[in-house]
Design brief:
Blueprint: E1 15-19, H1 24-34, E2 39-44, H2 47-59, E3 63-68, H3 74-88, E4 93-96, H4 111-138, E5 143-150, H5 161-180, E6 186-193, H6 206-218, H7 230-241, E7 251-254, H8 264-277
Parallel strand pairs: 1-2, 1-4, 2-3, 4-5, 5-6, 6-7
Helix pairs in contact: 1-2, 1-7, 3-4, 4-5
The structure holds NADP nicotinamide-adenine-dinucleotide phosphate.
Residues 19-26, 44-46, 49, 69-72, 97-100, 120, 124, 148, 150, 193, 195-196, 198-201 line the site of NADP nicotinamide-adenine-dinucleotide phosphate.
């Protein structure tokens, strides 16, 4: 049976993995997939926060499975999937969401920040994808692999270049994987998000944020600015993984609708307040 867009197809509920599901977009995706009645395995380093995610996704109608996961550690990735498969069987859906980004000019960025960004956003997605694909391909599972990207790939963001470079690499990976997996029944989607309310952009050190804003002002970059709520970002993932079989959603770009603000000096302040208030 073929389902409708945005709905589960009524056949056996699927098992999904969401990385970085202790907060923000990942938690919202886990809850949205739970509301389809699916089993959702959530991974992150803060396991106390994962327990909250499981409670929310089970209240929404799903079955939760939480396990510690540092996507930068291939042994932990292996252990996460082993534990899931023992309990619930292989995943049919992987959402590569775990990610981080630091602010700062390249010349002033520490090697540790460069490394953690590349390891988390790119290598982490690679480790999880290769591990999730093995049982999908061996079992002929009709699967979905989703990569959460950022609209920073569209226009380089000064003071966020390492982050943007990892997301550009992730999009390259996704586009290639789409071809590599053609005919296997595993679909690949890039969900490219605009600014979204989460800890990602409300926990930056004040001095880094000021440097970022000054760089943008100096370069004359003006952008209409607003934030997406995480539950609306999550709906894009639901749309992709529930697309009727026989179709595939390769790229979804979701950006916040802009509330007009004519005074450029207050734009950032408003955006930051909004992020804090809705956290
Ligand atoms: N917020 C935005 O404006 C925005 C815009 C475009 C795209 N995105 C993308 O959306 C995704 C989610 O970000 P968010 O906004 O929801 O940020 P967030 O609120 O900071 O959440 C990030 C999540 O990633 C997890 N994570 C970080 N490092 C990890 C690691 N090594 N292993 C496992 N999990 C890890 C964190 O969990 P632990 O710390 O518990 O491990 C947390 O659950 C990221 O890929 C980000 O690039 C965000």
């Amino acid at each position: 049976m073929v389902g409708a867009w945005g709905e589960s197809d009524g056949e056996a509920a699927r098992t999904a993995v969401v990385t970085g599901a202790s907060a923000g977009v990942g938690r919202a995706v886990a809850v949205a997939l739970g509301s389809l009645g699916w089993t959702v395995a959530v991974g992150a380093r803060r396991t106390d926060r994962l327990a909250e995610t499981v409670a929310e996704l089970e209240a929404a109608g799903g079955t939760g499975f939480a396990h510690r996961l540092d996507v930068c550690d291939p042994d932990q990735v292996e252990a996460f999937f082993d534990a899931l498969e023992e309990t619930h069987g292989p995943a049919a859906v992987l959402v590569n969401n775990a990610g981080l980004g630091w602010l700062g000019a390249i010349a002033e960025t520490t090697p540790a920040r460069l490394r953690s960004t590349v390891e988390t956003n790119l290598l982490g997605a690679l480790y999880c994808t290769r591990r999730a694909l093995r049982p999908m391909l061996a079992g002929g599972i009709a699967g979905d692999v989703v990569f959460i990207s950022s609209d920073s790939v569209l226009q380089p963001y000064p003071h966020m270049l390492t982050y943007g470079a990892t997301k550009a690499a992730v999009e390259y990976l996704a586009a290639g994987l789409d071809v590599e997996l053609g005919g296997t029944g595993v679909r690949v989607t890039t969900v490219r998000l605009g600014p979204t309310v989460s800890e990602f952009n409300t926990s930056w050190p004040e001095e880094d944020l000021i440097g970022f804003m000054h760089a943008w002002e100096r370069l004359g970059i003006r952008q209409d600015f607003n934030y997406l709520p995480t539950d609306l970002a999550a709906r894009a993932v639901v749309t992709a993984v529930t697309a009727p079989r026989g179709t595939k959603v390769s790229l979804l770009t979701v950006r916040p609708e802009v509330t007009r603000n004519d005074d450029p000096r207050t734009v950032w302040d408003k955006a930051r307040r909004q992020g804090r208030d809705e956290r």
